[in-house]
C-alpha cells in the first residue's frame, strides 16, 4: 500500500509534465532546441529535470506494473536492466546534465 502511495503522486506529476511540455512545445516557434527551452519556461534546467522525472516515472511504472500484473517476461527484462548500477549511472547522467543545463541557462 505504501508503494501505491508513492507511485500515484509520481505518475500524476509526470503526466502533468508531459502535458505541459507538449502544450508549450507545440505553441513554441523556432528550432527544436528553442522550442524545448520554451517548453521549460525559458530554462534548459527545467526541461532536463522534467525529463528526469518522466524517465523515473516510466521506469517505475514498468517495474511496478510487471509485478502487479504478474508478467514474468517483463519482470525478467526489468531485473536484467533495472539494476542498482544502471540506476546509479542514470542518476549521475541526469545530475551532470542538470549541471550543464544550469550553466547554459546562466
Task: Explain how this protein is built.
The protein is mostly helical and 106 residues long. The chain has one domain (2-105). The chain has helices at residues 2-27, 32-39, 44-68, 72-81, 84-105. Helix 1 (2-27) crosses helix 2, helix 3 (44-68) packs across helix 4 and helix 3 runs antiparallel to helix 5 (84-105). The radius of gyration is 16 Å and the shape is globular. The N and C termini lie far apart (42 Å).
Output the keywords:
106 residues; mainly alpha; globular
Q: What summary fits the major beta sheet?
A: none
**Helix and strand pattern:** HHHHH
Structural class from helices and strands? mainly alpha
Question: Average pLDDT value?
Answer: 89
Number of helices: 5
Shape: globular
Task: Give the CA-CA distance, first to last residue.
Answer: 42 Å
What's the gyration radius in Å? 16 Å
Poorly predicted tracts of residues: none
Q: Would you count the extended β strands for me?
A: 0
Helix coverage percent: over 70%
Number of domains: 1
Binned strand content: under 5%
Write the layout of secondary structure elements.
Blueprint: H1 2-27, H2 32-39, H3 44-68, H4 72-81, H5 84-105
Helix pairs in contact: 1-2, 1-3, 3-4, 3-5
Summarize the structure.
The chain is mainly α and 106 residues long.
Amino acid at each position: 500500500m505504501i508503494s501505491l502511495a508513492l507511485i500515484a503522486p509520481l505518475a500524476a506529476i509526470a503526466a502533468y509534465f508531459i502535458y505541459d511540455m507538449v502544450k508549450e512545445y507545440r505553441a513554441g516557434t523556432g528550432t527544436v532546441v528553442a522550442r524545448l527551452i520554451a517548453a521549460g519556461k525559458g530554462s534548459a534546467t527545467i526541461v532536463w529535470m522534467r525529463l528526469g522525472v518522466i524517465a523515473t516515472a516510466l521506469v517505475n511504472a514498468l517495474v511496478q506494473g510487471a509485478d502487479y500484473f504478474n508478467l514474468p517476461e517483463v519482470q525478467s527484462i526489468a531485473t536484467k536492466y533495472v539494476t542498482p548500477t544502471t540506476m546509479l549511472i542514470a542518476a549521475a547522467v541526469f545530475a551532470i546534465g542538470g549541471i550543464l543545463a544550469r550553466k547554459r541557462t546562466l
